[in-house]
């Protein structure tokens, strides 16, 4: 075929034309398939929404079931033949179970076991596909199926990060602090998100003097140390103060910062001095964290240090130091210090407090604004 | 090629290639996004985001929501934001100097008071008039900032200065967030991400039109009822669910929607915050943050959440939509312009090499190219050069592709988040996808073009706000003087380009001078040295100008982004072109003909063999090329800065370049009498590129030539273009006295045996004394022509009188059309057929041809028995067994007592480049001796000595023939054998006098059966041999032969006087059929020559004659073209009937 036929120019398009037609036919086939698939998916969704209503009603009756084996409606028994339905009812049970505990939660667990949905979960646990495995672990954990605990424990160090993470959450959910023993030898990093998850699982477990935390504080895995520091603070493990103090000189800035935060919960009379001593070994973020902790724990008498930070170049540091000074030593100290010559060649501080029209903003910036802000914060 | 043709091809192929690339990218994006979305959904299926809302470990977030004249809705919108369940949160509303009562309403609704607040101004902004907080502890998370109007970016910068938390989430205040939106956005900042710092996270924005919204919350999602918002829904699904997911997977996202995005505050501030001098501040910030991280080599990631998190009202009138798209276009170009240093800059990795170029070519340029395409279409339609069926095919395909892509996006939506569950919604989306290209897309393209125009006109506005800008920012300075800056850049690029180009011109001159001197010393200097040299340099200038036009466009375009990269690209291109020129010069120096598109006619193996055997490439040459590259690089490094040109002078170069490109001026190809000199003066690259272009974009012969009246071939059926009645006369019988038994036929094809140096009257001298002695005892056609300029043509033409098809009949390989030939027809009539060749018969697919002719034996390099000597190797390559051994092998293996008649074809090889024989010294002496015998004067001897190897090989071949005939004459079968001796073409490695010289070979038919000898001055060709021999044998032995044949030739002419009764095409190289002989004329392209009895020729101007010959040539081309397109050569029934069964 020729582009520009019967013209002075022409392009032979035989092969292009053929390619286009082939490609177009593929597209038409693709569109037809997608449209049919759309109908199919839509139909499934519609069916699910009808079933959902029925299942929710059924589950609501189970929640308050008392005594003996739960009576399963014939319709549900019949539908259980289909795997999609079993997954559907499992999902609904999980959704309900997450929000319920006690007898009502137990009823849901009984129903899950009575319908042999736990067998499906075990099958998923043994699947080769990671997302099935993750789903299986999740279901077994939510439904408190401790029988598979050991197998799940083995997966806490799995190469697949999603399997590993779900297994870690599951073992902590199923066995509380005991489940944290995987931290002893975990070669992978624990993300902040994972740490939040683990802490959330532990929140339902009665506080106790769990063991192993000393070891974790000295772990070669930086994220384990950070997590242990969080636990130390949350559970106020005062006896670990020395070990935590050692973390202030850890090579990792994140560990050092977390140690400072931890001290907010396990401090004693020496903590402020310790934090000031280690103050200059960190970056701005570390220093701000230290100042915030000092603000919270108080007890510092190292006024020269705080005044030096009030003079610091960074405005955030200035503000944080001024807050501590104002909180524990009052504004008079700040004003007196400033009057004594904080700002060379400037007017006395008392004049700043009522700046005259002739004064420019740059003369008093930023100390005037900072002190005014802190005053404003204190009055509200 | 005229400039009109160039423009036509440029647009047609340019837009085609662009479309293919664009479609490929869309395909890639569509498919690549699937994996990422699937992984995201599986990964987060069981995620309990609620943990974050109450966790003390959750990252602290400041929501920044700028508001301008939002008085009507601001109170509800803020309430919606405050209802977000997240502990570590502050909500900062920035009132950007609203003219309405927004602030008053907020103060009243939330019991706000003006607080003393120290604003740490990390980013310069407009003045903050006050910071407000609520007295009511319920609203403790709320901070309202009142500031002077400065635009959205400035307002966000104020928010950045005020924000106390580690992460910021920027949203449009009128957006509706999903309840868990913030939680989902926060999560990526807490994840591992392969130890990469997450600096930003983008979220999906969906269209809220027609949705049910109560108390600032989305209660139920509905598909918009109006068409415009609905089509934008589809557009957003495509962009967010496919495009951004794919880019997120590649970690190449350049844009996070300004309506909803989360950022690491520290990096935002370090990068300088939002740029208030662009309307595309959202994209600009992301690009700048990425640049910041890339420059410092900090590992980072920008993630993306495919969940629908944020709902916003879409424009529902064309007016507002147009304004929005106009702004987007301006934002894109401003961002791309500000960060042009990234463009194809490998320092920025994926950002520079993929993300930025993608945005430039397929986001920014797409509407512009589309608009240009449309205008070009209108022009072409007006000119009547549109092939409408093809146009509609392409148009339909593009529409279909767009529709498919949309349906795919809908499918992805349904399979993932399924916001629109009703059947009717899906159906309406599908219909919308169908209507989009007609009702929506053209408007979007138009708005985008308007955006470009407005940008140039500096109409830089956002609604009612007017950006005022800040002084002192270098980037801003450029931005504010864009037209002036463009002029400056253009000027600078032109000057720099001119200096680089001049360096390259000097290099071209140096190369041509070298070529001229080298060839002069190696071969011979032309007679008019000064004029020739001037012509050489003139051709260089012309080539240089033509190439410079393209390079100039490329250079200036890239210079706008990076002058440095433009220079590099120029240097690399110039070096590549120069090395190509060196290689082509080297080829010419060896082959004495310029390399054209015949290069594409050979397989890699063929090229390797030819180059290796000829010694064309060796380590010294490779080292020389390497050294040359280094020297060229140094020249471009050191010299351009020394050339200072005034801009007015510099601008002359591009003007001349475009003039040269668009002018129809072409240098006179036949300026000199000698073909060698005409070739010498050519710029070899210019010739090669021109030939290559014609090879890939051939002119359609049917359109070029109107066939003349009458039918040259008297074809019997249009289905078989060359099939005609066999009416070849038997002209050989009068010369023979035949026996009862069928005679043996031995055809000796001597490589490169040209008439220029063969037999009596050879203008270079008779270097074949034996062949000459044989000629006088034979039937001798002294003005005989080969059909091809190289070996590829000889077998099909001589054995089958077959057409050339596209690149020579042999080039068809296994797809060679069915045909009959001397080989198959004699075999059918009881002959045993054999082929002897010292080299590899796979060369040029000769073996395939022979097998397709049912040959009984192929004897080649691979089948030679032991004990035979090969030609000496050069660079590890040898063409195979030498000619003497070829003949020896033949005589040793053929049974002289065999009663079966024989047809044998022998092809020699020793007279091929590198012209080395096993007795080199002996024949070099013989060459000297022969020159004395021929009484050459010293001058002629000196010239001839430049080609001593060639002549020595010819003498060797002549001697080999002598030995062959001596031995043969002693055999029993000699007396009943007919010998045909001819050259496959004239050896081009000795300079040629004329174009026709390349084809001028002798034909000698010798046999003890001859009853008289004769010399013929009439012209015949290889095409005539098979028809004549068959007619002759048929006459005497009643050979079975078809009454319908496909011969191109109509038989040998035995007229003694000079005449040409034939009309034949001749094919010099594999790429194009340019030569045609008819009567006493020779047509070469558009040049017409008159051929004289000496076979010398002269260029003549006779347009009428030229047109007549072209028309006849057209008849051949039309038929040949039909065959190329798949027409059969002959009917199956005929073929089956006459093709021998093995």
Automatic annotation (TrEMBL), chain A:
The UniProt keyword set, sorted, is: Membrane, Transmembrane, Transmembrane helix
Membrane-spanning parts: 18-40
> Under what name is this protein listed?
HEAT repeat-containing protein
From TrEMBL, chain B:
Q: List GO molecular-function terms, semicolon-separated.
A: glycosyltransferase activity
- Transmembrane feature ranges: 6-34, 364-383, 390-414, 426-449, 490-511, 541-562, 569-597, 617-636, 648-665
Task: Please state every residue range assigned to the domain named Glycosyltransferase 2-like.
Answer: 62-194
Q: Which Pfam families match?
A: Chitin_synth_2 (PF03142), Glycos_transf_2 (PF00535), Sulfatase (PF00884)
> What keywords would UniProt list here?
Glycosyltransferase, Membrane, Transferase, Transmembrane, Transmembrane helix
Asked whether the UniProt record includes Glycosyltransferase among its keywords, one would answer: yes
Per the database record, which ranges form the Sulfatase N-terminal domain?
743-1032
Q: Does the keyword Transmembrane helix apply?
A: yes
The entry sums up its family as follows: Belongs to the glycosyltransferase 2 family.
Give the protein name, as stated in the record. Answer: Glycosyltransferase, catalytic subunit of cellulose synthase and poly-beta-1,6-N-acetylglucosamine synthase
| Origin species | Solitalea koreensis
């Amino acid at each position: 075929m020729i582009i520009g036929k019967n013209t002075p120019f022409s392009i032979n398009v035989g092969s292009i034309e053929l390619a286009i037609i082939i490609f177009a036919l593929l597209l038409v086939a693709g569109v037809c398939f997608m449209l049919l698939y759309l109908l199919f998916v839509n139909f499934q969704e519609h069916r699910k929404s009808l079933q959902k209503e029925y299942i929710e009603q059924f589950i609501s009756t189970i929640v308050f079931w008392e005594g003996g084996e739960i009576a399963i409606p014939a319709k549900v028994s019949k539908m259980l033949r289909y795997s999609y339905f079993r997954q559907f009812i499992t999902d609904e049970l999980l959704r309900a179970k997450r929000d319920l505990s006690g007898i009502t939660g137990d009823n849901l667990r009984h129903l899950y076991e009575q319908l042999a949905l736990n067998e499906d979960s075990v099958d998923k646990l043994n699947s080769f596909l990671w997302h099935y495995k993750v789903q299986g672990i999740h279901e077994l954990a939510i439904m408190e199926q401790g029988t598979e605990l050991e197998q799940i424990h083995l997966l806490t160090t799995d190469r697949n990060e999603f399997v590993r993470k779900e297994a870690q959450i599951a073992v902590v959910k199923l066995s509380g602090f005991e489940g944290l023993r995987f931290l002893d030898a975990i070669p992978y990093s624990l993300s902040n998100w994972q740490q939040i998850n683990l802490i959330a699982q532990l929140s339902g477990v009665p506080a106790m003097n769990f063991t192993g935390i000393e070891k974790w504080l000295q772990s070669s895995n930086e994220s384990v140390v950070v997590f242990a520091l969080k636990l130390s603070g949350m559970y106020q493990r005062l006896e670990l103060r020395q070990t935590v103090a050692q973390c202030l000189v850890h090579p990792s800035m994140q560990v050092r910062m977390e140690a400072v935060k931890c001290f907010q919960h396990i401090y004693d009379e020496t903590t402020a001095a310790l934090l000031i001593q280690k103050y200059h070994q960190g970056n701005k973020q570390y220093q701000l964290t230290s100042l915030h902790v000092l603000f919270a724990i108080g007890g510092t008498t190292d006024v020269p240090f705080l005044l030096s930070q009030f003079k610091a170049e960074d405005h955030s540091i200035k503000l944080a130091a001024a807050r501590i000074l104002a909180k524990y030593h009052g504004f008079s100290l700040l004003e007196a210090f400033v009057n004594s010559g904080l700002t060379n060649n400037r007017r006395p501080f008392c004049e700043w407090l009522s700046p005259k029209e002739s004064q420019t903003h740059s003369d008093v910036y930023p100390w005037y604004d900072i002190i005014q802000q802190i005053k404003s914060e204190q009055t509200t | 090629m005229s400039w009109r043709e160039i423009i036509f091809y440029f647009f047609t192929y340019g837009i085609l290639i662009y479309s293919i690339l664009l479609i490929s990218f869309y395909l890639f994006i569509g498919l690549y996004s699937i994996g990422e979305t699937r992984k995201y959904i599986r990964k987060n299926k069981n995620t309990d985001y609620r943990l974050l809302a109450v966790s003390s470990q959750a990252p602290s977030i400041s929501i920044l929501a700028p508001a301008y004249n939002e008085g009507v809705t601001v109170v509800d919108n803020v309430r919606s934001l405050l209802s977000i369940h997240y502990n570590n949160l502050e909500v900062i509303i920035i009132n950007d100097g609203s003219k309405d009562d927004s602030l008053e309403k907020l103060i009243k609704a939330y019991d706000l008071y003006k607080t003393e607040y120290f604003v740490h101004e990390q980013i310069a902004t407009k003045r903050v008039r006050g910071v407000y907080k609520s007295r009511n502890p319920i609203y403790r998370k709320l901070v309202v900032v009142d500031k002077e109007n400065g635009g959205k970016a400035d307002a966000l910068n104020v928010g950045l200065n005020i924000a106390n938390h580690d992460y910021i989430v920027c949203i449009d205040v009128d957006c509706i967030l999903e309840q868990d939106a913030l939680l989902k956005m926060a999560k990526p900042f807490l994840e591992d991400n392969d130890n990469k710092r997450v600096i930003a996270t983008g979220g999906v924005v969906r269209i809220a039109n027609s949705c049910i919204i109560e108390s600032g919350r989305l209660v139920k999602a509905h598909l918009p009822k109006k068409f415009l918002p609905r089509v934008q829904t589809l557009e957003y699904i495509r962009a967010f669910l496919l495009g951004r997911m794919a880019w997120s997977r590649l970690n190449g996202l350049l844009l996070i929607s300004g309506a909803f995005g989360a950022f690491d505050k520290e990096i935002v501030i370090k990068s300088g915050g939002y740029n208030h001098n662009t309307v595309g501040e959202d994209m600009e910030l992301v690009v700048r943050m990425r640049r910041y991280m890339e420059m410092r080599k900090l590992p980072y990631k920008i993630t993306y959440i495919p969940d629908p998190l944020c709902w916003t009202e879409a424009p529902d009138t064309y007016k507002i939509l147009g304004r929005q798209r106009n702004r987007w276009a301006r934002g894109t170009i401003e961002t791309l312009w500000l960060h042009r240093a990234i463009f194809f800059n490998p320092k920025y990795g994926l950002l520079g090499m993929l993300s930025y170029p993608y945005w430039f070519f397929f986001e920014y340029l797409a509407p512009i190219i589309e608009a240009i395409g449309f205008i070009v279409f209108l022009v072409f339609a007006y000119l009547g050069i549109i092939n409408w069926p093809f146009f509609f095919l392409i148009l339909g395909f593009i529409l279909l592709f767009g529709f498919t892509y949309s349906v795919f996006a809908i499918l992805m939506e349904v399979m993932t988040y399924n916001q629109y569950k009703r059947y009717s919604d899906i159906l309406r989306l599908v219909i919308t996808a169908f209507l989009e290209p007609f009702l929506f897309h053209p408007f979007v393209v138009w708005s985008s073009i308007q955006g470009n125009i407005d940008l140039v006109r500096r109409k830089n506005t956002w609604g009612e706000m007017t950006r005022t800008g800040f002084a002192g920012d270098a980037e801003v300075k450029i931005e504010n003087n864009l037209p002036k800056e463009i002029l400056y850049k253009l000027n600078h690029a032109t000057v720099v380009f001119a200096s680089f180009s001049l360096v390259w011109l000097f290099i071209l001159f140096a190369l041509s001078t070298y070529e001229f001197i080298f060839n002069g010393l190696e071969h011979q200097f032309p007679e008019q040295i000064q004029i020739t040299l001037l012509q050489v340099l003139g051709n260089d200038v012309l080539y240089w100008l033509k190439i410079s036009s393209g390079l100039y466009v490329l250079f200036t375009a890239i210079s706008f982004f990076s002058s440095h990269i433009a220079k590099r690209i120029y240097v690399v291109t110039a070096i590549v072109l120069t090395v190509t020129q060196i290689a082509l010069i080297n080829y010419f120096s060896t082959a004495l003909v310029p390399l054209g598109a015949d290069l594409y006619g050979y397989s890699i193996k063929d090229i390797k063999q030819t180059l290796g055997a000829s010694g064309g490439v060796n380590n010294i040459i490779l080292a020389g090329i390497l050294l040359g590259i280094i020297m060229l690089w140094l020249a471009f490094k050191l010299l351009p800065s020394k050339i200072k040109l005034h801009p007015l002078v510099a601008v002359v170069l591009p003007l001349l370049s475009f003039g040269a490109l668009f002018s129809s001026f072409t240098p006179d190809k036949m300026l000199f009498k000698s073909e060698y000199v005409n070739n010498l003066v050519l710029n070899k690259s210019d010739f090669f590129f021109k030939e290559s272009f014609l090879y890939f974009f051939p002119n359609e012969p049917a359109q070029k030539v109107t066939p003349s009246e009458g039918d040259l071939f008297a074809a019997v059926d249009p289905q078989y273009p060359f099939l005609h009645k066999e009416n070849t006369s038997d002209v050989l019988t009068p010369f023979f006295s035949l026996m009862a038994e069928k005679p043996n036929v031995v055809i000796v094809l001597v490589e490169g045996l040209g008439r220029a140096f063969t037999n009596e009257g050879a203008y270079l001298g008779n270097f074949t004394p034996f062949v000459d002695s044989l000629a006088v005892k034979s039937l001798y056609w002294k003005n005989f022509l080969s059909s091809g300029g190289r070996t590829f043509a000889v077998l099909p033409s001589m054995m089958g009188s077959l057409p050339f098809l596209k690149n020579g009949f042999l080039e068809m390989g296994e797809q060679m059309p069915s045909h009959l030939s001397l080989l198959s027809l004699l075999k059918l009539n009881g002959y045993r057929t054999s082929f002897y060749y010292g080299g590899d018969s796979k060369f040029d697919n000769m073996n395939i041809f022979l097998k397709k002719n049912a040959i009984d034996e192929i004897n080649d390099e691979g089948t030679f028995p032991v004990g035979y000597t090969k030609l000496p190797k050069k660079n590890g390559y040898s063409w195979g067994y030498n000619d003497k051994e070829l003949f020896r092998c033949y005589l040793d293996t053929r049974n002289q007592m065999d009663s079966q008649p024989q047809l044998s074809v022998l092809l020699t090889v020793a007279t091929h480049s590198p012209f080395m024989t096993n007795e080199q010294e002996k024949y070099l002496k013989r060459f000297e001796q022969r020159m004395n015998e021929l009484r050459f004067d010293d001058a002629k001897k000196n010239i001839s000595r430049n080609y001593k190897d060639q002549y020595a090989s010819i003498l060797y071949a002549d001697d080999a023939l002598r030995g062959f005939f001596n031995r043969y004459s002693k055999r029993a079968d000699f007396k009943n054998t007919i010998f045909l001796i001819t050259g496959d073409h004239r050896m081009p490695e000795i300079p040629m006098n004329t174009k026709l010289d390349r084809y001028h070979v002798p034909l000698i038919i010798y046999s003890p059966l001859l009853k008289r000898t004769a010399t013929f001055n009439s012209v015949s060709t290889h095409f005539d041999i098979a028809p004549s021999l068959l007619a002759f044998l048929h006459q005497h032995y009643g050979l079975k032969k078809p009454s319908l044949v496909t011969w191109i030739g109509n038989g040998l002419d035995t007229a003694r006087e000079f005449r040409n009764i034939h009309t034949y095409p001749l094919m010099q190289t594999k790429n194009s059929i340019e030569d045609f002989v008819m009567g006493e004329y020779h047509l070469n392209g558009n040049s017409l020559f008159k051929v004289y009895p000496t076979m010398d020729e002269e260029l003549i101007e006779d347009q009428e004659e030229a047109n007549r010959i072209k028309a006849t040539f057209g008849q051949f081309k039309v038929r040949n073209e039909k065959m190329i397109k798949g027409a059969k050569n002959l009917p199956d029934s005929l073929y089956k009937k006459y093709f021998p069964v093995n």
